[in-house]
Structures are given as C-alpha cells and as structure tokens.
Amino acid sequence: MAVLVALALSSAGAIMYGIESARLDRAATAQAEQEIAEFRTLQEQGKDPNTARDFASIRDLMRVFLERNVPSDNELFVAWVDDKAAFVSASDHRGFGGSDELAALVARHVEDGAEFRADSSVGELLITVQPVHGQSSRGALVVVTFLDDMHADLTNLMRTYAIFSLLSLGVITMLAGWQAGRLLAPLRQMSETAREISVTDLSRRLPETGNDDISALTRTVNEMLARLEESFTTQRQFLDSAGHELRTPLTILRGHLEVLDEDNPAEVAETRDMLLDEIDRMARLVNDLILLTKSNRPDFITPGPVDLDALVSSVVTKARGLGVREWQVDATTDGVLLHLDEQRITQALLQLADNAVKHTHPGDVIAVGASVDHSDGTSSSTVRLWVRDAGHGVEPGDRERIFERFSRSAVLPGDEGFGLGLSIVRAIASAHGGTVHVEDAEPTGATFVLTLPFAADTVTEEEESWPAS
C-alpha cells in the first residue's frame, strides 16, 4: 500500500510540475512578445518627447523605451547599439546585461532578430531580439527573461510538496501498518487456533467479532469445523457401535467353530444353522449402522408429493405381514398431499409397527393414523403420523432414552434386536425437519408419533385435479 501511495504522490507531483512549468513558459513567451509589441508601436508611432518629432537616432528610441517601460522582476531590457549594450534596465542581474556572455549570445541575431533559449551562468534564459535599423547605425532591443527566477516559486512549491508528501507517506505507512495488523490479527489467531485443532479434538472454535469479511470467513470456518466434528463424531460412533455389537456374534462364531466336531453331521448342521443366523444378525446390524451414518447426508431423503391417506393405507397393508394383530386405520386427512420421502416415512412407520408387534399379543389392536394440526388458528402447521398399540406401554423414564442408539426399554423374550430401530425412526424424522416421541395410548399401550412440518405448497387432491386456466 505504501508503494502505491508513493507512486500516486510522485505522479501527482510530476503532473503538477509539468503543467505549471508549461504555463510559466507560455507566460514568459507572452510577456516577451508584449514588450516587443510595445517597442514596435513606439518605433512606428512614437515621438521624441524632447523634440516632439520622430526619433533622430536608435539611441534616443532605446532610451525613451527603457524610461517608459519597467521590466518585471524576472526580466532585463538591454538596448543594443552598434554591437554593444548602450542602456541596461534595472534588474537583479543588471551586470549580466553588459557581459561578454550575453554579447556572444546576441551578436549573431542582431540583424535578423530571434527568440531562443540558452543556458548561462545565471541559469536558463529566454532571449528575444528585436532588430532596429537607423540611417547610420544599427541596434536591437534585447529582452532577457530569467526562466530560473520565474520557476523559483514553483521550485519552492514542489520542494514543500515533496516534504509534505514524505511526511504524509510516513504517516500513511504507519496507519496502514497499524490497520493491517488489526485486520490480520484475526487471521493470525485463526491460524494459531487451526494449528491447535486436531482429529482428536474438533471442539475448538474461532472467536467471532464484528461484521466484516474476516468475521464472515471466521463464521464459515467455524461452520466447517462443526460439520467436520459432526462427521468425525458420526464415524467414531459408527466404529464404536459396530465394534461393540459385532464382538458378541463374532465370539459366538469363533467359540462354536473351535469346539465343532467335524465327524458329527448333526452337530455340523446345527452349528451351520446357528452361524448363518448370527451372520444374518450381523448383516442387519451393519445395514442399520450404515443407514444411521447416511442420515446426515443431504441425499438421505428424496422428497416428493405424497397422499397421506394412501400412505397410511399402504403401511397398514404391509404391516399385516409382521404379525397376526387387529390392524386398524385411526384417522385420515381427506386427501392431503405432503412433500416428503414416501419410502423413508414408510420405513419409519413399519419400524414402529414392528416394535408394536413385539410388545403385543395376537389379536391385539395396532392402529396407524395421520392428522393435520391447525393449532395456530391461521393455517396448517404440522402433520402427525402415528402407530398406536395396546401393549404394556413405555415407562416415563425411558421415553427419551429409547431413541438413542443401542438403548432399549423392556426386552421381551425372543427379541433379537440391537436397539437401533427407534434411532433410525428419529433420524428419518430429523431429516424431514420433524421429531418423534412416545405418549400413552388409551386405554393401555403406547403411541409413537412422528411430527413433520406441513409444506407451504401443499394442496388437496381436489385442488390438484382442478384444471389449470
């Protein structure tokens, strides 16, 4: 930044000096031309004030002109007669008027006249020579303009400008350094914090202050760290859960294979059936864990328009194969369409239905239902999907814990589950922006409820079938 400021100040100074210098040169030329014009007027129309007649000699003409015209501070008038300076006007450089240096510069232009620049011991000069011819003599009016004197004020101004520019550059450099340090401080802190973050500890976050671009970058990095932490946590949970749950069936497999009597066909067949059953259980466990791992991915669900009544009816039909129960439909929604993933919601409801079968007896009632909640008084806000059973219910202390991975309430004989089913249901509900909870059923049993947001563009079947205009 300091380099750019220095270039800008230097360029501005150079441009200003060039423009002003050219203006002064034009003013010097114009001033000399004005003096020559006045001299010509006196030569052509003037009278000698002593005789009231035409000038008798070049010397008298020159004398009268120098008496009537006063040169500016940076000018010198020299009356050149017969190859020498006859009269010299008052000036700080009056001695230069009779010098041999000026005589050498003027001599070759006395006859024809000229305007030219020349370097001298007193600086750069603009010399204008106006020849005058008399009957018996010759001469010239020489106007000498001392250009260095004309540029003295400009030179002083540029010197002042240079000093001011250097001081300004120093101040700007210090301010820029201070500002850069202040702006880069969050980046340095971000770098230090990033170095302290490791795979084993992703909980650290960068401090967020202000609303500038650095703060926006800090928030973005924190969001990235949160996603990484969630991803690593999910992976660790997956590995811990898989290792924990696979250890038992693997131990069973190893133990039976170690004591297997290969010469006993009955024992081999029994062991084979048992090992295949354990392998099936491990396959179910792995599939459930993979499903839970995928639940945080954006492509976990593929929403589309779904008829809730048709969905409930389809779930009841499929659930009849889970067990001999009295399957019922509790409530319908009169053809409401909802934007959701039909396969995932069906999977969640069938998982709840399977749990209900495990905790009921043949002939017990299991009902599936759906309703729209208009509790806000203005428009539909949520949709409830539930599975109700007539079993023994869920203890109040277990109603939150059962939705955690590998957590179970009462384990019935013959239940070979891993405690992942309700975790999968909660993952599906969360992916839709909803929740799942359990409440008491009437007169007995439990009701597992999925509460999902009602899509803003949801329409009824009647509205959907109305022809577009």
From TrEMBL:
Gene Ontology molecular-function annotations: phosphorelay sensor kinase activity
The family database entries (PANTHER family) matched by this protein are listed as: SENSOR HISTIDINE KINASE TRCS, SENSOR HISTIDINE KINASE YKOH
Matching Pfam families, A to Z?
Answer: HAMP, HATPase_c, HisKA
Gene3D superfamilies recorded for this chain?
Answer: 1.10.287.130, 6.10.340.10, Histidine kinase-like ATPase, C-terminal domain (3.30.565.10)
Compartments in which it is found: Cell membrane
- Enumerate the catalysed reactions: ATP + protein L-histidine = ADP + protein N-phospho-L-histidine
Where is each HAMP domain found?
A: 181-233
User: What residue stretches are annotated with the Histidine kinase domain?
Assistant: 241-456
Do the record's keywords include Phosphoprotein? Answer: yes
- The principal localisation class reads membrane
- Coiled-coil segments: none
Protein name (Swiss-Prot/TrEMBL): histidine kinase
Asked if the record carries the keyword 4Fe-4S, the reply is: no
- The EC code for this enzyme is 2.7.13.3
Keywords, in A-Z order? Kinase, Membrane, Phosphoprotein, Transferase, Transmembrane, Transmembrane helix, Two-component regulatory system
This chain's source organism reads Nocardioides daedukensis
- Look at the named UniProt entry and state the broad enzyme category this protein falls under: transferase
